Amino acid sequence: MWLADRLANLVSGLGGPRDKSTGNLHVHVPRARAELDAAYRDNWLARKVVDIVPFDMLREWRAWQAPPDIAAALAASEERLALRDRLLRALRLARLHGGAALLIGDGAPDPALPLDPETLGQGGLRYLHVLPRGRIQAGGIERDPLSPWFGEPKDYTIAGGQAVHPSRVVRLLGAALPDDAVSDGWGDSVLQALLEAIDQATAASAHIAAMLPEAKQDVISVPGLSQHLSTEDGTAALTERFAYAARMKGLFGMLLLEGDGRAPEGERYQQKQLDFSGLPEVARLFLQVAAGAADIPVTRLLGQSPAGLNATGESDIRNYHDHVAARQNVELTPAIARLDRLLIRDGLGRSDPALRYAWRPLAQASERERAEIGRLKAETAAMLAREGVVPAEALSRGVEGWLSAADLFPGIAAAFGRPAG
Questions:
Q1: Residue ranges of the Anti-CBASS protein Acb1-like N-terminal domain (predicted)?
Q2: Domain spans of the chain?
Q3: Distance between the two ends of the chain, CA-based, in angstroms?
């Protein structure tokens, strides 16, 4: 016997047999890849929903918290491997198809064997390849909590049947699934839950656009119209008569009609016009629903200024930037942690567990704001130097790193001239 604990009201019918909402039932219908690809290629809103978040996550990139020479070596490895470009493409594919992968290549003859970071020397990484979900198959999920691969696929198989060890793969997911629903090692497309709202928003705009040609219609009442149309000669004569009238109106701005427009036996002319006053609000409502479903502010999704009295949109953009920063730290940083350990050895030829990086903020300060921040930091450094609470060498290295990373004075990093290492 099933017991239901819910709110019911016998007077209004809420929760009872008269409540139509009691028949609602959620049924999962997976979107086919062909449908997802078609939506991404043909629907501008679906494409922006997929592309915007990965682009914003990577557009300011990251800054290594290290001396300039070490940071430059790591940046050079990132550039040589085109890490930023490869990661952007993989994140977009992951959001579109539910998953994608980066294949790490070190030149090993058998990629089915583990990639040991300690065996990788400087410049040891050969390539990073982006593999869409359709070109890499994930094996069974590791359920042993003592395994370092717990919760990840035990192995992978790429097109052609080549087995690949998970240490050589960076797995990126789209929309997360409940644990019990994970069957193939990947997630859902972000469009799986959003496509209905996206279709409604674009359909609303399309319906309004379809009404534009009907915005103004000329209506002419013709006595005995059905009799004229009952014969071919009458139809042809009537067609020719009003085609000529339309030409007269187009050429001279006047319409010739029989009668005075009031007598029953005369033709009567009317012009009807549609009222579009409420339609823009309807279109905006559907766009707002789609933007809310995608966790992207309307101002960012549509690239428009906020509307309304005293509206600046600053709070929306600030919340969105906080959302993107959280995804960088909670999702992206752990996903590429294995690759970053390899990248450090590729750039420096050695491991350095103390190395850290920070994602640069999305909101960039103006020149005036940067100058003000620089003044405050300079005053703080001067105060620390006077008080002697920080060793002079350590403070000097810190100020050098700050000036090099802040880009307040172009070329200052090269002017310090510290040797590599």
A1: 35-381
A2: 28-215+275-364, 216-273, 368-421
A3: 72
